[in-house]
Amino acid sequence: MIDTPTLTAFMAVAETGSFSAAAERLYITQPAISKRIALLEQQLDARLFDRVGRQIKLTEAGNALMPRARQVLMDVEDMARAIHDLSGEVSGKLRIGTSHHIGLHRLPPVLRQFSRDYPKVTLDIHFIDSEEAWEGVLHGELEMGVVTLPPQPDNRLQSDVIWTDPLVFMCAPEHPLARQEHLTLEALTGHSAILPSPVTFTRGIVEKLFDEHNLKLDIAMSTNYLETIHMMVSIGLGWSVLPATMVDKGVVQLPVDAPLPERELGVVTHPARSQSNAAKAFLRALQQA
Question: Residues with Cβ < 8 Å from 133, sequence gap 6 or more?
Fold first, then answer.
């Protein structure tokens, strides 16, 4: 009979690509991990990992097992949480994924008040890209994501808007663009841009705007960290599109004639998973912020 500790070990090796890293994640020894994987392979009569040197890769059987194992573990966790939550107590561990920007600029007062109101909840916060947090919720690795929401709705997850986040064009005060009273999108293409990475929702918003005007961006650098982009813009390395809340004495807002859409920041949860009492309480805290 395949049990949950064995499936948990399999998922840990599959996700980390390492028996030693899986052991560290689960706080058990590496031989114990190896024993569980060997037992699972025996029970399924299939090799789940190819071990080539130090590299661990899923076999075809391993790839087929992974989504099924994830679903089983998610169902077991949901079952245990649902039974525990019948007491009405707000406690336990709450796994949240959020972006560095939201974690720095939006969440601190919410986290402070929530921790005071619900001391029995252990917050397990992962500071990652919004897109990675979104995927983590989709695959059951996180119970909740506090993220930049996708520009186009995706029905695979439940989304709740918490904040609107206006975007603006900006550059350093000494940048040539800062001397212009009126600017077009075309004028911006003559100067280097510093933008979020191509995989981000914010980058998609900017590229869509320029594509609609048949304009090609001159992108000098990309990074996932908005604070890093702000720093590079402030020293004159290029212009960018960032949240209006990041305009300070180090940068100036540019008077561009094409309005930017607002980003929406909010919460994503999985519609097929029951929410824990802790998750419900945290969502209420966000909505009241």
Answer: 97, 98, 99, 126, 142, 145, 146, 147, 268
